[in-house]
Predict the 3D structure of the following.
Amino acid sequence: VDGAGINYLLSGHRPVKTLGRGWNEAFADERQKIWIYENTEALPIAYVVPKAIFVKDSKEAAEQISRAGFDPAVNVIIETDGTGFIAGGPGGARIERPSPDEIVITVDVPKSGWLALSETWFPGWTADTGGQPTVIYHANLAFMAVHLAPGKHTVIFRYKSTYQKLGFYIAGIAAYFLLIGLLWGKRLNPA
C-alpha cells in the first residue's frame, strides 16, 4: 500500500491492528463507528526509484512484491520480456499539472533512475520526455514507470482512449444520418 500512494483508510471497525507500521489513527467516532487511519509512510503519486527488477509476468511480479523486505521506494518491479536488474540512483519528482488525461511531472535524477507513477497502467497511455516518445513499463503489478537518463526532465503522460475516438466517429456518423433523415422528412412532408 505504501507504493500505491494510499494515504488514508476508512474503517467501520476498531482497532485495526493488522495495518502495520506507519499507520496512525487520524480520526475516531465511536458512536458513528467511523475510524480513519493515516499512512505516514505512503509514497507520493510520482517518485523516483533507483533500482528495477525485471520479471516475465504478473505472477512473478506478485511474488517479488510480496517478499519480505520489498521496498517500493528502492525497487520497482517491471513486467517485460527481458530479465535482470538495473541500478541507478535516487532523485526527485514533482507533479506540475495533474488531470485525468494528462500528468506533467518534473524530474531530477543525478544518475539514471525510474520514475514510478501510481496511476493505473492501461492501454491508451503514452509518455514523452522532452518531446521524445518514452516507453511506459507496466510496474508494480498495476502502475506505470519510465526509465530516465541522468538530468532534469519534464515527463508528460497522456491518456487517449481508442474507444473515445471510436465513440466520436460513431456519434458523427449518427448525427450525419439524423440530419439526412430530418431533411428527407421535410421534403416528403412540406408544411
Q: What stands out?
A: Helices lie at 58-66, 162-188. The first strand starts at residue 8 and ends at 11. The longest helix spans residues 162-188. The mean pLDDT is 84.
